[in-house]
Amino acid sequence: MDNNATWTSWGGVRPELAPSARTFLMDVLGELTPQEPADITAAIVPASRLPKVARAELVDALGADGVKDDDRIRAEHAGGQSYVDLVRRRHGDASEAPDAVLLPTAADQIASVLAICEAAKIAVVPWGGGTSVVGGLTPLAGQHKAVVALDLSRLDQLVAVDKTSMTATFEPGIRTPAAEQALAAQGLTLGHVPQSFERASLGGYVVTRSAGQASSGYGRFDDLVLGCRMTTPRGELDLPPMPGSAAGPDLRRLVMGSEGTLGIVTEVTLRVRPLPAVKHYEGWIARSWADGVRIMRRLAQTGAKPDIARLADEAETRASLAMSGTDGLKKRGLDAWLKLHGVAGGCMMIMGYEGTAGDVRHRRQEVRRILRADKAVPLGAGAGSSWEHNRFSGAYLRDTLLDNGVLVETLETATTWSRLDDLYNGVRRALTEALTAGTQLPLVGCHISHLYPTGASLYFTVLAKADAGREIAQWTAAKHAANAAIIAAGGTASHHHAVGTAHQEIVGPDLGGAIGLDALRAVKSQLDPAGILNPGKLLP
Amino acid sequence: MDNNATWTSWGGVRPELAPSARTFLMDVLGELTPQEPADITAAIVPASRLPKVARAELVDALGADGVKDDDRIRAEHAGGQSYVDLVRRRHGDASEAPDAVLLPTAADQIASVLAICEAAKIAVVPWGGGTSVVGGLTPLAGQHKAVVALDLSRLDQLVAVDKTSMTATFEPGIRTPAAEQALAAQGLTLGHVPQSFERASLGGYVVTRSAGQASSGYGRFDDLVLGCRMTTPRGELDLPPMPGSAAGPDLRRLVMGSEGTLGIVTEVTLRVRPLPAVKHYEGWIARSWADGVRIMRRLAQTGAKPDIARLADEAETRASLAMSGTDGLKKRGLDAWLKLHGVAGGCMMIMGYEGTAGDVRHRRQEVRRILRADKAVPLGAGAGSSWEHNRFSGAYLRDTLLDNGVLVETLETATTWSRLDDLYNGVRRALTEALTAGTQLPLVGCHISHLYPTGASLYFTVLAKADAGREIAQWTAAKHAANAAIIAAGGTASHHHAVGTAHQEIVGPDLGGAIGLDALRAVKSQLDPAGILNPGKLLP
Question: How many other C-beta atoms are found inside a 10 Å radius of the C-beta of residue A466?
Fold first, then answer.
């Protein structure tokens, strides 16, 4: 199993299905059909197309250890962590493997890499933690002769900390746990905790505009970036750390969201905060989705809000209770408690606070006033701890579900509060219709997990019986339907997963239509005239 | 005097100098030399170069009332409100007047205007409230045959309010008081209150990345913009309102700060807030600039901060007390109160809170704890009201000072907390040296008025004896020196006044150096290939 750690699984650990989970899945999806994943050693990897001359030049620039083209490492870099990526690899298909994997150890090697690749017509796919779920890492050669993955994992240092300004400067390939560990030694934190926390890199967060589970309090990654350096085929873009400015358009915002198509981020300076003295997470039940949405909106529009605010709809609440193994006595206790409060079913909410004791106490008080006014039922800190304990588990559980023949994928969007209901209903309907097979309905759950005063994110999770052998076509049809529903309801193509290849078909309105796409293409042509950087991504 | 309302004065009202102000100025600058401004009716306006055919086409598009080329309106549009602009006009110099002023009444007329101007090789300077202090409105024709001011003041409507999402959509030419009045009728506010509040337009705030006096609480204007529409010579960029997104780079941030060089903003959707139930402003004295800066930093880096937080240095504190007429009994009372607390001189701080009663109470408590820990001396709500009463008065007072032969100008920058001292000292030294004439020193005051967790703005005010007849050369030399000092200390070219022509020489680093400038020029070439939009601004 360990063999497959980065091949067909998230972390090499496949949790057992709890009995309640198994029962629940069979209730919803019918009989489960085990599916054994292929081993990476059996992966079919095409011969490398890397030209010999270019290979020699790259070895000159990076050392022999910096240029790898054995089948295994190439297979490991054949895409990211989307359902489609995983299914393909589970089938032993590494046909999209890059022709080589480059592993620079210093930022100044990157300019050489780009020069060599531009001259030799080799496409470059920047690679951080390898966690893209939107096809952002698929090694597409485009018009070029070959494609390499530029793996930044050896650029993994904390470069500097400025405790007066509360900023820290990092190399791009450092993964979140290492970054947080280095900061914690100085009493600091980024507070950026997406579900991909364990594997994702800081550079990846920059170029995909990540948002973490505590974004309602700590802000999106966009909000943490003060400055960055990006190497392009035409030279370095060096945007110094600045707290606020009116000196022309903020080009940091052009780097953020560029998904490796404009250059390679080599350094980023981020806002840091003191490690919170207190972390308090608690569960609540809203009586209905509508009640819950109203509560979320009120929280977002008042001053004192939680750092983490999550609302699951009825379907996701039911599923997550079952999947986390809340059965037997515990489940009956919860039902009785809710019945006592006149709630059947309901929608799970998590409220999380991080800060000083006084700050947390004050905000909890304010928030509880809003929750009580809307007749939400408290579940206490136990439900909060349980959520915290499981905050990264979805990615592991997905592997187990795939092993059981279940189609499991997520997608996300956002819009303003006034359009949120239409978006919720539209996407749910689209996914349900697309994945219904005969009388067999999929399970489509949804949660809100990122609050803004003006709107919120919607994060959908889909479970369906996988159409064995046709998994990719099955999901692709559903994804198109969801994309169309997002556009129809005025949602954004992605709230925090980025565009990659999955959202190109609907990214137009987010980028201002044809004129915005032209503007972005003009920047691309200027910085990467040969088009070697991550071709086939972001821009339709 | 009324004749000159928008010609050589801010508002047609020239406040009398208080006796204490006159004494103070003579103490600092020596004898005052009255200077009478020219009347607009005496302004020398060159003949219009607007080609006849283009004029006829513009009349077709806008109606006769929409195309004005009389001397008076042209003179009124000959630049903005910088010291250089005012001195030029006070000398009766309208040589830079635009060849015509266009006044569209509907957004869809703007595409026609741009098409006509592009075909006829006419440069277009977008005009909102006319308050640029960085040369952004100077009607430069560049390579073109003529130049027109595109005055957006008739596009002044509140288009829509979405109370659920707490957003409001406006036309660009609406001035802040009208916008706030329309919102107040629905219990809402933008909370954006720069010193130019009374005259500046919302569209102007977008393209110059304005920050208001309450930006520490309400955020910069950047933070309020959810969506916008911009007409370019190549079509419309329509960026829908979105609370948060990871769908590629945020092109709204390309519109913000574009200063009319990429297109004309025709609509903007902004975050609004409930009108605050309570507004409370109070004064404090920090024992020294260093103490005050440390207090500001602590406030910025804790959760509960004021919405308005200002710190004046010793020089500005002394000057503003004298200039606001705080003399005689009141001044002696203040001195006695400070002496009681062991403070001689000291630095004035203003703390302002806007929100619900509970929110204001909570934050005041938290802030007072920090202020008391640093031994700041409370001056009470009287000092706060006095600041509020005078919050827009600087622009009026400047006219009186000009009438008295005083050079008066402001400039501003920002940097991270750790570099703030160097920036403060560097700019102060540069301005002092540049404006010292013999033994006659200028007065250089500074305040912090925009807090970020990672840094702050610095806003300098300079008073010197004007070198009559050579005012522009005198100030230009000082401005170059200040610009050089800003660059040397790692400050931003502008924190909230934008680039215009005044900061082109130092905007490079903010835009990431040559590569960033190239990227921005590529966008410009794409959207405005003929280069008719505000030539000679922003991009060096």
Answer: 22
